Amino acid sequence: MSQLTHLDSQGHAHMVDVTDKSVSQREARAEAVVSMSAECMALLIDGKHPKGDVFAVARIAGIQAAKRTWELIPLCHPLMLTSVKVELQALPEQQRVRIETRAKLAGQTGVEMEALTAASVAALTLYDMCKAVDKGMVIEHIRLLEKSGGKSGHWQISALEEQA
């Protein structure tokens, strides 16, 4: 098990010094799932939601959030992301929207928090825009799916876990 590195030798929280880490290509994928009523799902699929293109707004919100993760999550490094993607997929048979995000950069630290923040904020935006129709929506499964690059290399959730 790796040690928590956000503590200094006195046990105080601090930002990890990445000065001596090598620059490498780093990428992370994350997801969030939003469950909703059949009525809300129908409005999204038919493009008749009273607030317009909910998916487009949630996509932009996720991208903006990834770029500002360092302002939202204490001890995160400000990063110059080279790419952020936010994809929303309606799953009407399950009454869910699946959000998958991807963050990339060439840098000295990973982008897992940026991908997770993008997924979280996209899900919250979807909730905000749809709450007038369905206040009972549930945001769940916010999780890292995959990360690559850096000293720890590649990690990916198992295919069975990803389908769950």
From TrEMBL:
It catalyses: (8S)-3',8-cyclo-7,8-dihydroguanosine 5'-triphosphate = cyclic pyranopterin phosphate + diphosphate. Belongs to the MoaC family. It is an enzyme of class 4 (lyase). This is Cyclic pyranopterin monophosphate synthase. Keywords: Lyase, Molybdenum cofactor biosynthesis. Substrate binds at residues 75-77, 113-114. PANTHER family: CYCLIC PYRANOPTERIN MONOPHOSPHATE SYNTHASE, MOLYBDOPTERIN COFACTOR SYNTHESIS PROTEIN A. Residues 15-150 form the Molybdopterin cofactor biosynthesis C (MoaC) domain. Its EC number is 4.6.1.17. The active site is at 128. Catalyzes the conversion of (8S)-3',8-cyclo-7,8-dihydroguanosine 5'-triphosphate to cyclic pyranopterin monophosphate (cPMP). The lineage of its organism: Bacteria, Pseudomonadati, Pseudomonadota, Gammaproteobacteria, Oceanospirillales. Coiled coil: none annotated. Homohexamer; trimer of dimers. The gene is moaC. Pathway: Cofactor biosynthesis; molybdopterin biosynthesis.
